[in-house]
């Protein structure tokens, strides 16, 4: 009997009982055509997989090493007293982490039993499953529930779904060796109630098109396959009412773009990838006729490759609610790469698996080990590309420009994507820049210390909403110190930037986008380019940001940078004895105003050092522009925010303004050998003009280098690829077709 005494607890019990009855009735009434494997394992690992591993293990040293390592790890766990605690803690607390350790240990011990047939691992999984079967019926809602969707074992049902995804695979590994009595107890007291709680018990999550819904669908569907419960499978695939309006197939359809970009951004693409590929693998085993990996033009296989492209130096681009130390070696992508390789035999995926250095003892993991031992890996090609956003690819895009592919290469990312649901930030036309293995022009990511209970229980910090999501925390224009869409993500979700053009060539990589909905009556248009120069070691980043409005406003353009400020040419007044916050709301309250001064007409420069390279930000002044030097830390009594620096270019009152800037990567500092090279910028002049076309508006930015070389980037208002443009510049006439042109040696 469930130990529930409250009215809410009784209601939960009745709902669970009712749900179980419906499942039993539905299972007998509905017929779903799928391969009914009664033998186990029949989920993400099959009997054929295990037979191949057992017979060929001696021929694959990489898999042997993985087996030895995993046995050592799990043997150490088994040597400890079994601990299945009553839930008490929020994310990061002892009981939370212990239940995570338990489901991971069960899963891995189940694999070890299948591969080795050592009953020590079978007995471990059996005892732990029975312990959970004793515990689960006694649980009500978690004592420290997360606001939206509480769990029982965990503070939120998301973690409960993750637990079941692992646990049902563990059960699948040992089920055929358990007595009928044990199976009945585990299925009746644990697996069915857990699946029922995650589905009928929380329809608002189960039917949601969101990563929480994906985890729940995967957990319930995988449980359905193992228990041979057709109703659970169909609910997972097609939604709770099995209509097809929700469920796993709709999640694939709606959450991925035609280019494999996930709506919530790279961090959550990595997180959601695991339930997507694991459930898809289970579907492929049990219902191969669904051809799930071909669904939506191979959306899941595209998503795996796109996840890799969304990284620099192994780490994912830290946009939206991102924890910035997550990268391509996370367990989610380990499974994703291995499953994708098993399907495609793409040798470039082996190169990523080699960097991950984590062989799985599954059928798909074993085939990765075989490929690596046979030397089949080929380099993965990181590319400059535009990844469209939205189900139809019409909700903006993420532009990625790369120069080289090694550790020291450059990457420019321009974020012209949709809002990204509730995890999205208010940062339309935002950008990041990476060089020399580091993030140079940065995104704060999420304000959160994940699973560190001592820091706000591991939750997103309050500052995630009040700082990290706000527009001023990003490298894009802020109007009147208000965030885009007035800080309402549901409003922001309705509008995405319009990509005006995107192009890549040997000399220039360029994109342009605009949005008119971020601020009523104000249009934002940004063009960014990575331009190569024969006299420079690294390309220049050219940025043209046009703001036009029907009335006068204050415009701020922040640049968040990583490194130590070295020099600047701004006549700035530093506040050395008293600091004050830059503003009161929308993120401004967290910024100390360290110094400020006018940006005079002509070019001004700021240089900083990151590790052993210099970066100079050259900007055009005028229009009563101010440069504000800021640092995070104001109004932060709990020291929740990192101490990071930013430059803010402010125009106090204007209807329209065009921000023009160039970022240069240059020089070398060697502290060991005590030398410095090229610490000064090679950009000696920056000039911009508008309305320079013969019969139209064309923005022109001319850059002159210390070598005497010069070039002009001309960007037309008409972004058609077929439009012909004529420009008179410095007594010369230039004619071209398309939205832009890179003109060389344009000065007299």
From TrEMBL:
Gene3D superfamilies per record: 2.70.98.70, Chondroitin AC/alginate lyase (1.50.10.100)
Keyword set, alphabetical order: Lyase, Periplasm, Signal
Gene Ontology molecular-function annotations: lyase activity
Domain Heparinase II/III-like C-terminal, first and last residues per copy: 386-653
Location relative to the cell: Periplasm
Every Alginate lyase domain range: 81-309
GO cellular component, as recorded: periplasmic space
Keyword presence, Lyase: yes
Keyword Signal annotated: yes
InterPro entries linked to this entry: Alginate_lyase_dom (IPR008397), Chondroitin_lyas (IPR008929), Hepar_II_III_C (IPR012480)
Pfam families tied to this protein: Alginate_lyase, Hepar_II_III_C
Name of the molecule in the record: Alginate lyase
């Amino acid at each position: 009997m469930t130990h529930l005494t409250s009215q809410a607890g009784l209601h939960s019990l009745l709902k669970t009982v009712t749900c179980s009855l419906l499942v039993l009735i539905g299972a007998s009434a509905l017929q779903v055509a799928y391969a009914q494997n009664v033998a186990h394992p029949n989920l993400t690992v099959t009997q054929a997989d295990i037979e191949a591993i057992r017979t060929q293990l001696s021929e694959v040293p990489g898999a042997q090493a993985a087996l030895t390592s995993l046995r050592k790890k799990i043997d150490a766990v088994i040597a400890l007293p079994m601990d299945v605690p009553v839930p008490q803690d929020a994310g990061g607390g002892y009981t939370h982490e212990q239940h995570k350790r338990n489901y991971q240990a069960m899963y891995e011990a189940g694999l070890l039993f299948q591969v080795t047939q050592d009953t020590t691992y079978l007995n471990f999984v059996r005892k732990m499953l029975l312990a959970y079967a004793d515990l689960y019926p006694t649980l009500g809602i978690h004592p420290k529930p997360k606001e939206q969707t509480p769990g029982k074992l965990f503070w939120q049902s998301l973690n409960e779904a993750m637990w079941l995804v692992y646990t049902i695979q563990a059960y699948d590994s040992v089920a055929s060796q358990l007595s009928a009595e044990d199976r009945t107890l585990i299925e009746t007291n644990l697996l069915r109630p857990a699946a029922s709680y995650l589905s009928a018990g929380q329809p608002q999550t189960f039917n949601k098109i969101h990563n929480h819904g994906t985890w729940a669908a995967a957990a319930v569907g995988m449980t359905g396959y193992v228990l041979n419960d057709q109703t659970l499978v169909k609910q997972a695939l097609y939604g709770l009412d099995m209509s097809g309006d929700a469920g796993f197939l709709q999640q694939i359809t709606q959450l991925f773009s035609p280019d494999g970009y996930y709506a919530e951004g790279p961090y959550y693409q990595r997180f959601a990838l695991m339930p997507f590929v694991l459930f898809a693998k289970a579907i492929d085993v049990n219902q191969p006729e669904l051809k799930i990996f071909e669904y939506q033009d191979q959306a899941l296989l595209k998503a795996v490759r796109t996840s890799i492209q969304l990284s620099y130096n192994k780490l994912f681009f830290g946009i939206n609610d991102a924890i910035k130390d997550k990268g391509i070696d996370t367990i989610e992508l380990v499974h994703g790469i291995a499953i994708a390789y098993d399907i495609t035999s793409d040798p470039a995926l082996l190169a990523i698996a080699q960097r991950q250095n984590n062989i799985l003892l599954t059928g798909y993991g074993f085939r990765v080990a075989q490929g690596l031992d046979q030397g089949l890996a080929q380099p993965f090609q990181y590319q400059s590309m535009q990844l469209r956003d939205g189900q139809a690819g019409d909700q903006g895009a993420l532009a990625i420009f790369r120069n080289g592919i090694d550790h020291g290469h450059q990457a420019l990312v321009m974020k012209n994507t949709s809002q990204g649901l509730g995890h999205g930030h208010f940062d339309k036309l935002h950008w990041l820049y990476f060089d020399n293995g580091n993030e140079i022009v940065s995104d704060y990511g999420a304000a959160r210390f994940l699973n560190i209970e001592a820091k706000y229980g591991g939750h997103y910090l309050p500052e995630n909403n009040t700082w990290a999501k706000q527009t001023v925390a990003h490298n894009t224009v802020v109007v009147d110190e208000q965030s885009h869409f007035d800080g309402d993500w549901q409003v922001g979700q309705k509008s995405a930037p319009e990509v005006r053009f995107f192009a890549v060539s040997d000399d220039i990589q360029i994109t342009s986008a605009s949005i008119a909905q971020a601020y009523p009556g104000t249009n934002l248009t940004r063009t960014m380019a990575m331009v190569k120069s024969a006299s420079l070691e690294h390309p220049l980043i050219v940025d043209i940001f046009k703001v036009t409005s029907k009335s006068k406003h204050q415009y701020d353009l922040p640049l968040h940078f990583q490194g130590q400020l070295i020099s600047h040419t701004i006549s700035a007044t530093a506040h050395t004895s008293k600091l004050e916050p830059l503003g009161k709301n929308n993120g401004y309250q967290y910024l100390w105003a360290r110094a400020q001064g006018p940006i005079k007409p002509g070019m001004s420069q700021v240089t900083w050092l990151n590790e052993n390279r210099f970066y100079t930000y050259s900007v055009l002044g005028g229009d009563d522009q101010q440069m504000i030097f800021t640092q995070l830390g104001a109004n932060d009594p709990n020291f929740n925010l990192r101490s990071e620096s930013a430059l803010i270019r402010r125009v106090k009152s204007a209807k329209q303004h065009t921000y023009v800037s160039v970022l240069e990567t240059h020089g070398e500092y060697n502290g060991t050998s005590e030398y410095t090279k090229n610490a000064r910028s090679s950009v000696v002049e920056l000039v911009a003009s508008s309305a320079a076309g013969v019969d139209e508006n064309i923005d022109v930015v001319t850059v002159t280098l210390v070598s005497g070389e010069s070039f002009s980037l001309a960007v037309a208002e008409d972004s058609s690829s077929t439009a012909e443009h004529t420009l008179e510049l410095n007594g010369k006439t230039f004619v071209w077709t398309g939205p832009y042109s890179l003109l060389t040696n344009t000065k007299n």
